[in-house]
Fold:
Amino acid sequence: PVARPLAGVRVLLTAGPTREPLDPVRFLGNRSSGRMGFALAEALEALGARVTLIAGPTALAAPRVTEQVEVETALEMYEAVMVRAADCHIFVATAAVADYRPETPAATKIKKDAESLTLHLVRNPDILAAVAALSQPPFTVGFAAETDHVEAYARDKLLRKGLDMIAANRVGGDQGGFERPENALTVLWRDGRREFPLMDKTRLARALAQLIAERYQGRHAA
Ligand code: PMT
Structure:
C-alpha cells in the first residue's frame, strides 16, 4: 500500500515557460521544458493530492493529474492561477514566467526594413508573490533559477515574497536546470534546508513532493 499523506489536499502548480508575443508569428520565450514541473505535479498527485496544473507551452505528454489548464502568456498564467488560488491548500510555482513582455505586440508581422530594432518591454505581474500576498495564502512553494549566488538569492526570494519554502537550482551551466533530464536542488525554509544532489527529475520530484508533504503537515501541527 502506498502512503497518501496528501489525500484531500488541493494543489495548484505552474510549470513550463511562457511565451510573450512580439507579433502574430514571434514570441519571447525561455528554455524551460516543463519537465521539472510536470514530474512534481505527478509526484504530488501520487501522494493523494488533487493537482491542477497550469502549464505553459511544452512538448510533453499530459501528466497524470486531476486537471490541466493550458496557457501561453504570463498574463494568462496569472489569471488562471488567481481565479483558483483561494481554493487551494498548496501552491507550487515551477514555471519559468517571463518577467517582461512587449508592451504592445504588433498587429501584423514585423518587417525587416530597419537596420536595428528596439523592443519596449513592460513588467509582468509576479504570480508567486501575488499568491503569497493573499490574506489567507495557501502553503507556498517557490523555485529560484539562478546562475550565481544560488542560495543567497533564493533565501532573499523566500523572505521577500513571504514563502513557506523555496527550491533553488543552478541554471545556465552544463548540469541540471532547464531542458535537461536531471536536476539538483537546494530547498530552503525559514529555519531549515535540504540538499538534493543531481538526479533524474522524476526521482527528484518524488523526493521534493515528500518534503513538501512533511513541511505542509508540520505547518498544521505548529
Ligand atoms: O522546465 P524544466 O526544463 O524542467 O526546467 C526546470 C526549471 C529550471 C524551469 C525549474 O526548476 C525552475 O527553476 N523554475 C523557476 C524558474 C524561474 O523563473 O525562476 P525565477 O527565479 O525567475 O522566479 C522565482 C519564482 O517566482 C519561481 O517560482 C517563478 O515561478 C515565480 N515567478 C516569477 C516571475 C513571475 N512573473 N511570476 C512568478 O510566479
About this structure: The mean pLDDT is 95. The chain is about 25% helix and 30% strand. Residues 14, 32-37, 74, 93-97, 99, 124, 126-128, 142-145, 157, 169, 171, 177-179 surround PMT (CB under 6 Å). The CA atoms of residues 82 and 172 lie 30 Å apart.
